[in-house]
Amino acid sequence: MDLSDLIDRPIAFQRSFVRLTKSINASLFLSQAVYWSKRTDDSEGWFYKRQSEWEDETGLTRREQDTARKTLRELGVMEEVLEGIPATLHFRVNFKTLRTRLAECAIPVCTKTPTQIGGKRQTTNNAETTSETTTQKGRFTDFWEAYPRKEAKGNAEKAFKKVDVHVDILIEAIEAQKKSEAWRKEGGAFIPHPATWLNSRRWEDEPMKPIAPTYQRIGEIPGPDLEKLRLPGKK
Questions:
Q1: Which pLDDT tens digit goes with each residue over 166-211?
Q2: Long-range CB contacts (< 8 A, 24+ apart) of 201-206?
Q3: Is the preceding omega at residue 86 within 30 degrees of 0, hence cis?
Q4: Which residue has the higher pLDDT, 84 or 73?
């Protein structure tokens, strides 16, 4: 095979997205999403793509995709929804928000004091830090409310800060695993501690076997008194 055949599909992305997302991977993901948004048949701009297809087109691993998607969702420039049976993840670029975000960062404004020898120490933007911390705590609260085993909350919160996927993905996995035989066995005795579940990335587990419904034998099912239902003169 000729070398030109191997390098025939270059991946390009918008340089302006890097200033917006502060991430090469997120910029690449967003650029590819914009490309497909212009080529979908859906009138509202939705398109679907599997994780393996994103990796084939961009080279981004599953973890890199999750991080990029999280960044884009938090910026409000990417929307996601699960639809169909089996559920397929659909994407849409919010071009209105994207336009606003790009306009905001078109002229970079430095809000921090430059570090100089003998000069003032560089400071951080306390408002931004506070906002980010508040948002993170809110997401952990959502996770904690969804997780059925309420133990070692401090350890769980530390583990949650290291998670690189959106809390909605965690909650979706939790709700599915709540229905599994393993989690419902013996009143939930085998549900892992929340910190263990997070550190082990258990949301990536293959779907668990749902608990099998139990049925009574026909003779054990409560029913009407047949003697009372007999018609007069019938035996």
A1: 888 888 889 889 988 889 888 888 999 999 999 999 988 887 665 5
A2: 202/173, 202/177, 203/165, 203/169, 203/170, 203/172, 203/173, 203/174, 204/173, 205/173, 205/177
A3: yes
A4: 73
**Where do the domains of the chain lie, and which CATH numbers do they carry?**
9-104 (1.10.10.10), 126-203 (no CATH)
Nearest-10 Cα torsion for 156, 134, 109, 76: 80
**Is the confidence at residue 112, as pLDDT, over 50?**
no
How open is the CA angle 195-198-202, to the nearest 5 degrees? 130
pLDDT in tens, 134-168: 455 568 888 999 999 999 999 999 999 888 888 88
> How many Å apart are CA 25 and CA 68, to the nearest integer?
6
Cα distance from N-terminal residue to C-terminal residue, the chain: 88
Q: Report the largest interatomic distance among the alpha carbons of the chain, rounded to a whole angstrom.
A: 111
- What's the chain's length in residues? 235
pTM comes to 0.45
Separation of CA 173 from chain center = 10
